Description:
Blueprint: E1 14-21, H1 35-39, E2 41-49, H2 54-58, E3 104-106, E4 112-114, E5 121-122, H3 154-161, E6 181-182, H4 189-193, E7 201-202, H5 216-225, H6 256-262
Parallel strand pairs: 5-6
Antiparallel strand pairs: 1-2, 1-7, 3-4
Amino acid sequence: MVRRFYLSLLACAMVVSVPMARGAASGGGPQGSGADRLSRIEHIVVIFQENHSFDNLYGSWEGVDGLAAAPRPRTIQVNQQGVAFTCLKQNDVNLTSPPLLALCSDTTGVPFTSHFFNEPFTIDDFIPPTATTCPNGLPNGTPGGCTKDLVHRFYQERYQLNDGQQNRYVTGSDSIGLTMGVYRTSDLPIYRFLHRDGHPHYAIGDRFFQSAIGGSFLNHQWLIAAATPVWPNAVNDGSANDLHSVVVLNSSLHLTLLVIIAFSDKDNGLSLVIENR
C-alpha cells in the first residue's frame, strides 16, 4: 500500500477510528456477518490529532499497516533537485547540533551537520514527555514534551507529496527534519489502556486518512459534513479583504519563502509552491 508517511504535513491533522466491540478481538476471525457483526460494535471512537499522521503516533502498533510497511523510497527525503539528503537538518532547538552531538555531515546543498541521518527517528529519545518545552517547543516552559509546530496547509502538502513520491516532507516544511520524527507507540496512554488486563476488544482504522489536503479546520468540517464550505461571490480583487491564495511557479525563488510567507497572519496571497523548472 502506498501510504502517507509524515505530513508536516503532511504532518497535519490525522483521524484514527477505533471501533470497540464484544465478541471479535483485533486480528480474530469473523463472527457473524453483515448487520449481525455491525450490531456487536458498542462504540466508535474518533481520535482527531492535529498535526499528527497515523504513523507518527500509532505506526509501531502491532499488526497495523505502519512504519514497518513504509516503502524505503518514501522514507528517504530529497532536496528541490531530487537529490537525497545525507542527514536531516533540524531547527527545533532541542534537536539541533549543538546541543546534540553531530554524527552526520551533509553537502547536498548548503553544508550542515546533524545528529540525525536521513531516516525516521524517535522523538521521545530526545524530547521526553517530562521535558519542559510546552507550549511551543522552547525550553523553560511547562512539562509535556512539546515540539515546535509544523506547517500544514494545502500547497505545502501538495508539494511534499511530490506526485506520490512522498519524499519532500523535509524540503516543504518549516520544521524540516522534525517531519521524520515519530513517537514511541507503546508509551501512549491509549496503547497502555488497550493492552491491560480486561481491555475491550478493538480494531484500528490504520488506513483512515484525512479527508482534505489542508489544515485542521477544513478537516473538522469534512469529519462532520463530508464537504468543503463554499463562499459565494468572495472578493477577488487583491485587496486586504481578498483571501484567495496565490500559487507562484518561479525557479528564481527559493523554497524558504514558502515557509516565511505561510506563517503570516492571513492566507490571502500567502501560499506559494516553488519548484525548479
